[in-house]
Amino acid sequence: MSLFSPMITDFWQATFLSGEVLCRNGKFTLAVNPGLSEDRRLMVLETADGSVMAVMTPALADRLGLHRQSGLSEPLLRGTLREAGIVLHGADYIFYFSEAAKRALGQETPAGVVRRLTAEDEAAFAGFQSSASEQDLDDAYVELDHWAVFGSLEQGRLVCAASMYPWQNARVADLGVLTLLPFRAQGHARKVVRAISRHACEQGYEPQYRCQLDNQASAALAEAAGLSLFGKWEVISPDAGE
Q1: Is 185 left (phi over 0), alpha (psi -120 to 50) or beta?
Q2: What is the rounded CA–CA span in Å between residue 105 and residue 194?
Q3: What values do phi and psi take at 87, rounded to 5?
């Protein structure tokens, strides 16, 4: 994980290791933390180097009998979860800029008509949203009132937009991006992602890009924009019963 900023590694280690560690077994670590919120009472992070960290509430660990198990491993944990009927929500890939990539980003001049959007762009943004499908809007979660919003224009029309908001009370800015269907594969999203990420870095935030594992186009965009894979993050399914 040394490829990335200490801010990133410290953030994830605090998320997963700030409670009582029940098990360290090779590259697998399991901890319990009573401070986890209800919708994140179980989380698993597999980093790009193959390390796996899991954290859950003490109540869930007691229910699963994990305090009494020795030699825990990721396969054993997942088997225990399956037997208990506990489902993890579909995993997200998480991408960040490496330290070297951030330095290159800071020296770059935006290409094309890419700029920050403001409340004065409300009409243009409304037209942009009306040209996108409901599914694309839900998946991207790009909003004009987010902490930062950037867009790419073609002949005066907004064709791609990205927005960011601070994530989990950390100096991490989670971003979403959406390009209108007729304008995809033309470089708009890459330029917008890099422009908004440069802005976040200038404000002292780490840009964060997330996408579902089966969204190959989104993962390819992250890599094209210069981000590197940090890991895969899973949380308990919203439909999972206690």
Answers
A1: left
A2: 7
A3: -110, 135
pLDDT tens readout for residues 150-189: 999 999 999 999 999 999 889 999 999 999 999 999 999 9
Mean pLDDT calculated for residue range 119-131: 97
Q: Measured in whole angstroms, how far is the alpha carbon of residue 112 from the centre of its chain? A: 27
Q: Where are the domains of the chain?
A: 6-93, 98-226
Closest CA to 180 of 125, 142, 132, 123: 132
Tokens in use for 27?
């590259």
Say how many residues make up the chain.
Answer: 242
Q: What is the pLDDT of residues 77-92, one digit of tens each?
A: 999 999 999 999 889 9
Q: How far is CA 159 from CA 115, 119, 152, in A?
A: 12, 17, 6
Provide the residue type at 166 as one letter. Answer: P
pTM, two decimal places: 0.92
For residue 73, the Cα-to-chain-centroid distance in whole angstroms is: 25
Query: Could you tell me which of 22, 14, 33 has the C-alpha nearest to residue 73?
Result: 22
Q: Which helix (H) or strand (E) holds 215?
A: none
As a whole number of angstroms, the distance between CA 22 and CA 12 comes to 18
Indicate whether 1 pLDDT > 60: no
Please list the alpha-helical segments (H only) found in the chain.
6-17, 58-64, 74-83, 99-106, 122-130, 134-140, 188-202, 216-224
Distance CA(212)–CA(203), nearest Å, equals 27
Considering the segment(s) 98-226 as one domain, its CATH architecture is 3-Layer(aba) Sandwich (3.40)
Residue 147 is classified by DSSP as S
